[in-house]
Structure formats: structure tokens, C-alpha cells
Design a protein that fits this description.
heterodimer, A: 295 residues, mainly alpha, ABC transporter involved in vitamin B12 uptake, BtuC, two-stranded antiparallel sheet, 12 helices, B: 268 residues, alpha/beta, Rossmann fold, six-stranded mixed β-sheet, four-stranded antiparallel β-sheet, 10 strands, globular
Chain lengths: 295, 268
């Protein structure tokens, strides 16, 4: 029983990370038809930003209390800024050339981790999390690491915020309509491109937050972290239905749980295979993903 | 409906008076459209006056929708000129012509299936007001305009229904509602009854009639239901092989032997 509870909580924590990365990917793909292979780089930038700030390089930021919150906020802000620059400088000039656009994001996705390892080395760096978050709490006989709870809470906040943004705000309405049919939004006389930078900023913020909090989950940061999480985030996006936030949330939880349970009860590494099998099975039954539209 | 004089510009009841001397709302002069060597439209000339209801009939492929595309700016005429209120707009874009008060619906449904009826109208209201006031401003600020438009088009009870779940007739009403938010003076309706069930035709007809009669909008409409048109249109334009074959009152057009031979005899 304790094992099951622990595996469930760890799976949910991992699912939370996947959701944070996948929500932005899904919106970006849904609205702009851009496969952003540089999304993992945004996560890494967020992770290193938070690590750099929490290690005492940013005045006021630190490894505990408000200082840590500030460090996470700094990492998220740096990642958001990177996302905006990415859209303006690399993606925007290539909207009429989708193939070059994909290659450009792949290039950025390779270059950013290389840049990070050139500056701070390719070895994993210990992430200086607050003591309060490195402990465990008892739940149904299992000792659950507190950071899992932090991740799940952060993902829930992001999920609710995104749904409010999409459902209640003017720009959210434009984004949703654009995900469904972009040409019709243009026909109505609305400049959808203005929303592109915004969606990139939102996606980048969520990914960078995943990076900053991922440091807690993994206990360290390394340049390749973003890239390995990105693969599963793509699986989540496809399973959830391109452009669907709710679909991404459900798929992220499913992928996280299946991965954890399969790794524990079969052999380490089979979890990844189980996820791929699950993706194949779902696509055979529902080719458009869980939702197939923005819910 | 009283027959109208075909030669004098017809002005609908409720439309601005004294408009007879003004430039026509729409003037087509020798408009043609050729694509890749094929001539789709040729030498179409006509004037449409404020408050008038002009219906386009003709067999499939006669060029009715193509003509609407040239008027709305979706395609640019390759010969002749298109004038709105006396201004040459032949080279202008769809959005520029829309700002001049021209609005259009399409033959195929153009809605977002996963968005609600109210959200459609809210989005149209945002588009109509342009610019962004305040980034986080809630979409709810348009609620009054949304409520008014829903009321006007008889969709109030469907406000929170997803567009994908509406009946064909309701979808057409929603398209009209989206169009009305921009308050167009000249409305181009491309087969608004297409796919609509027989029970829904009367209410939709009534809605279109009120937009014309009560609100004084100028309407151009492509339609195959002749019974609908005879109660609505001031004049009928008969299109055949990319040309304008006849333009007259419904009664005169029905009596025209050329028209009967070319179109009515075979298609009706």
C-alpha cells in the first residue's frame, strides 16, 4: 500500500512537470502550427536561472523562504524573456516557411543546452532547495517527498490560471478561436499574430517554471534535462489533443503514473516503453487525441 | 409586397429619405474576373441603392459567389471597377471594405464549433472595436452588446450552447449575428438558407426581412429558394455563364422569355 501511494505521488509530481511543459507546447502548436523543439531549452534556461539565483548570485534570492520564491520567479522570468525573444527573432520571420521554422527550433533546442554546458559545465549541479521542501510527510503509511506536493500545486495553479485566461479574457478568446480556425479569426479582422508572442510568453513561463521546480524534483540541474522532458511532453500533447489544455492535464497525469508504475513493477526503463505503447494504443482508438479540441 | 418600378431606384420603407440623389451604395462597372486564362465573370455592371434588396439567382457555376468575392474584396476584379458610395475600392482589401460598412456571410458555415454562441458575438465585438484596451480586461465588458445582438437574432436562449451543437438554421442565425455586430450597411449573404430545414426557413427569412425593412440595411443575397426571394427581393439579378443576363423586378424577370430559356425553364 505504501509503495502504491508513493508511486502515485511521484507519478503525479512527474505528471505535473509534463503538464507545465506540454501546456505551452500544446497552445503554441494549436494556435500557430509551430512544433517548438526549442521548448526544452526554455525549461533548461528556467532551471539554470533559478539555480543561479538560489546559489546566492542574485541579491535577495537564496535557498530558503522568500529568497527561494524569488529565485524561482527569476528563473521563470528569464525563461519567459527567452521565449519572447525566440518568437520575435527566430519563429516570426519564418511563419511562411514551416520547414525552416522547425529546423530553426531544433537548432535553438540544441544550441541552448550547449551554451549552458559551455558556461557551467555539462555535469549536473546540485539544486539548492529550501530545507522545508526537501523533507517528507507521511501519507497512508508512505513517506512522500514534499517537493511532489509543490509540483502538483504549481501545475494546478497554472491549469486554473490558463483556463481562466482562455475562458474569461479578450486575448484568451482570440487564442481559443485561433486554435480552432485561425483563418476565420483573421477574416473577422483580428490580427492573430499579436497573440502569437503572448502565447509564446505564456508557454515559456510555464516551461521555465517546470525547470525551476524540476530542480527540486530531481535535486539537481543539468543542461540536458529539458530535452529529455520534452520528448514526453510531446507525447502528452499528442495524447491530449493539440491545443487542448484540459486534455494535456489528463494525458500528463496518465503518462506520469504509467511511467512510474511500469518502471517499478517491471524493469527500470520499461516505463518509457509503456508510455510509447500507450500513445500508440490511444492514437489507434482516438486518432485526434483525448479531446481533439480545445476544452 | 407591392411591385416596384424597375427603372427608378427602389428605396425600402424605413430607409433614409432623400437618398435618391446620392451615389449608389454599390456600383459595378464592367466587372470581370479571369483566372489562369479562364474567364469566370465578364462585363457585370449594376447599381445598388441605399436600402435596396437585390437577389442573385442562376445555375451553379454562373458566377454568383465569384461576384460576391469581387465585391467583398476576397478576390480582386481583373477588369472593371467596384465602387462603394462613389469611391473606387477595386484595389482595396477585405478589411478596408469592411470598415466602409460592407459585411458578408459565406456559403459554407464559418463558425468555431467548440465556442459558445455568446463567445462568437463577443469575439466579433472585440474585432469591431479594434485595438486592445487593457490587457487583462475581461471579455465580459461586451455583455450588453452581446445580449442585444442575441435578442435581435432570436438566439438569447442558446447563448451558452456550443456552436457545433446548433441546428443548421441556428448556425445561419449566428453567422448573421456575428456579421451584425459590425453594423454593416451593405450585407452580402451567400445562400443563407443552405442546409436549413424547411421548418427553420420562415424564422430565418423573417430575420433577414427585418434587417432589411426595419433596420434599413442594403442586402445582396444569393439564394435558390425562389419562394423565399419573391417575398423579399426588390430586384432579381440573373447570372448565366459569368454574365449578368437580366436585372429587374421579380415579376418582370419571371416573365422574361430569355431568362426562362436560359435558366428558369431548366432549373426550376
Amino acid at each position: 500500500m505504501a509503495t502504491i501511494v508513493l508511486l502515485t505521488c511521484t507519478g503525479l509530481g512527474l505528471g505535473a512537470l509534463y503538464f507545465l511543459v506540454a501546456s505551452g507546447l500544446s497552445l503554441i502548436f494549436g494556435l500557430m502550427d509551430v512544433l517548438n523543439f526549442a521548448h526544452g531549452a526554455l525549461l533548461s534556461i528556467g532551471a539554470y536561472g533559478a539555480w543561479w539565483a538560489a546559489s546566492g548570485n542574485l541579491p535577495g534570492a537564496g535557498r530558503s523562504g522568500f529568497g527561494f520564491v524569488l529565485a524561482v520567479a527569476f528563473g521563470t522570468a528569464v525563461g519567459t524573456l527567452a521565449a519572447v525573444l525566440l518568437e520575435l527573432a527566430v519563429i516570426r520571420p519564418l511563419y511562411t516557411r514551416p520547414r525552416e521554422q522547425i529546423l530553426a527550433t531544433v537548432g535553438v533546442g540544441l544550441a541552448a543546452p550547449a551554451l549552458l554546458s559551455a558556461i557551467w559545465g555539462s555535469d549536473a549541479r546540485t539544486f539548492p532547495g529550501p530545507a522545508a521542501l526537501s523533507g517528507t510527510f507521511p501519507l497512508l503509511g508512505a513517506a512522500i517527498p514534499v517537493n511532489r506536493l509543490v509540483l502538483v500545486a504549481a501545475a494546478l495553479v497554472v491549469l486554473v490560471a490558463l483556463r481562466l485566461f482562455l475562458g474569461r479574457t479578450r486575448h484568451g478568446l482570440v487564442v481559443r478561436a485561433g486554435v480552432e480556425d485561425r483563418a476565420m479569426v483573421t477574416a473577422l479582422g483580428i490580427d492573430v499574430r499579436k497573440a502569437f508572442t503572448l502565447v509564446f510568453a505564456i508557454g515559456g513561463a510555464a516551461a521555465a517554471l517546470a525547470g525551476a521546480l524540476g530542480g527540486l524534483y530531481f535535486g539537481s540541474v543539468d543542461p540536458g534535462q529539458g530535452t529529455s522532458l520534452l520528448i514526453f511532453a510531446f507525447v502528452v500533447v499528442v495524447m491530449g489533443g493539440m491545443g487542448s489544455i484540459t486534455g494535456a492535464a489528463v494525458a500528463a497525469v496518465g503518462v506520469g503514473l504509467v511511467q512510474q508504475f511500469a518502471n517499478y513493477y517491471t524493469a527500470a526503463g520499461l516505463g518509457d516503453l509503456a508510455v510509447v505503447v500507450m500513445l500508440a494504443a490511444l492514437l489507434l482508438i482516438r486518432p485526434r487525441g483525448l479531446t481533439g479540441r480545445l476544452a | 409586397m407591392a411591385p416596384r418600378n424597375a427603372t427608378a431606384p427602389a428605396v425600402a420603407e424605413g430607409a433614409a429619405t432623400g437618398a435618391t440623389t446620392a451615389a449608389p451604395v454599390l456600383r459595378l462597372s464592367g466587372v470581370g474576373w479571369a483566372v489562369g486564362g479562364a474567364t469566370i465573370l465578364q462585363g457585370v455592371s449594376l447599381d445598388v441603392y441605399e436600402g435596396e434588396f437585390l437577389a442573385f439567382i442562376g445555375p451553379n457555376g454562373a458566377g454568383k459567389t465569384s461576384l460576391f468575392n469581387l465585391i467583398s474584396g476576397l478576390n480582386k476584379a481583373t477588369s472593371g471597377t467596384v465602387e462603394l458610395d462613389g469611391t473606387d475600392v477595386t484595389a482595396e482589401s477585405v478589411s478596408t471594405r469592411a470598415r466602409r460598412g460592407l459585411g458578408r456571410t459565406f456559403q459554407t458555415s464559418s463558425l468555431w464549433p467548440a465556442m459558445t454562441v455568446a463567445e462568437h458575438i463577443r469575439l466579433a465585438a472585440q474585432a469591431a472595436t479594434g485595438g486592445s484596451y487593457g490587457f487583462w480586461r475581461r471579455a465580459g465588458r461586451y455583455s450588453e452588446q452581446v445580449a442585444r445582438t442575441l435578442e435581435r437574432t432570436g438566439l438569447a436562449h442558446r447563448a451558452d450552447t456550443l456552436a457545433g451543437s446548433l441546428s443548421h438554421g441556428e448556425k445561419r442565425k449566428l453567422e448573421l449575428a456575428v456579421l451584425l455586430v459590425g453594423e454593416p450597411r451593405l450585407m452580402l449573404l451567400d445562400e443563407p438558407m443552405a442546409g436549413v430545414s424547411a421548418e427553420e426557413v420562415p424564422t430565418l427569412t423573417e430575420l433577414i426581412r427585418s434587417l432589411h425593412r426595419d433596420e434599413g440595411r442594403t442586402v445582396l443575397m444569393v439564394e435558390h429558394h425562389m419562394d423565399v426571394l419573391l417575398g423579399l427581393a426588390d430586384r432579381l439579378a440573373v447570372m448565366h455563364h459569368g454574365t449578368l443576363l437580366a436585372l429587374d423586378t421579380p415579376q418582370a424577370v419571371m416573365a422574361d422569355t430569355t431568362v426562362q430559356q436560359a435558366y428558369l425553364g431548366e432549373a426550376l
